[in-house]
Amino acid sequence: MAHPLSRIIDQLKREPSRTGSIVITVFGDAIVPRGGSVWLGTLLEFFESLDIDSGVVRTAMSRLAADGWLTREKVGRNSFYRLADKGHQTFEAATRHIYDSPPSDWTGRFELLLIGNGEDRDASREALRNAGFGSPLPGVWVAPSGVPVPDEAMGAIRLEVSAEDDSGRRLLSASWPLDRTADAYLKFMKTFEPLRAAIARGADLSEADAFTARVLLIHYYRRVVLRDPLLPESLLPADWPGRAARALCGEIYRALLAPSEQWLDEHGTNEKGSLPAARKLLERRFGA
């Protein structure tokens, strides 16, 4: 029987190409905690494990640089990439959304943002969506009070409403497709539960396999959780699968962390040599 990691890679191959998205996962999960810069060759070596051609990776890197997400530095014939300024705030918000425990100090109120038709509307919409805001109507965005408002939307008109009455709960149901999010969580668990079970049985994973599994774990999890507004427990169904999905992701992540970091110790390179050691924050992800 094929190893669960092989089946996950096979599933990835059947999907539309997401090479650029995987690059973003690698940077956010593994490179930013180690100084933020990495040699293109390190990335190419990783993508070989996914059978993704070097030309496809180079094209994805060029597009991300052209779109302002990455910057490139040439040292001789070698290229090194790091996050551009544009990407830092988005990455910081996404990092909190993925790895931190959901907030538990909700006040029972929602924040409403009204976005006009200015030139920056598209940027505001994307930033709000990535920050966990929902949109019940065009130009109207909503999130539990306390969710940070991204810089791109600081010019919005801001109001507060209560979710204690029927109108507030209708606003809630219209703002987020929770049924679709629940289905996505269930699919994530179905994909990664066999990997968790294999690790629990002591399955042999090389350091390279551990790094590949870690990147794919976060790649798939973030595609769901970044669309989840992380609503307060009191507003969620009793059988909400987001809790179990987070627990599963955290268990696998903690099991893969040490061997995957060892792979980066031995193979990760930046313009100064080996990647620096990861910051301690890595050990605190998922409440570890």
From TrEMBL:
InterPro entries reported in the protein's UniProt record: PaaX-like_N, PaaX_C, PaaX_trns_reg, WH-like_DNA-bd_sf, WH_DNA-bd_sf
Domain Transcriptional repressor PaaX-like N-terminal per the UniProt entry, residue ranges: 18-87
Domain annotation Transcriptional repressor PaaX-like C-terminal: ranges: 176-265
Transmembrane segments: none
Domain of life: Bacteria
GO biological process: DNA-templated transcription
Protein name from the UniProt record: Phenylacetic acid degradation operon negative regulatory protein PaaX
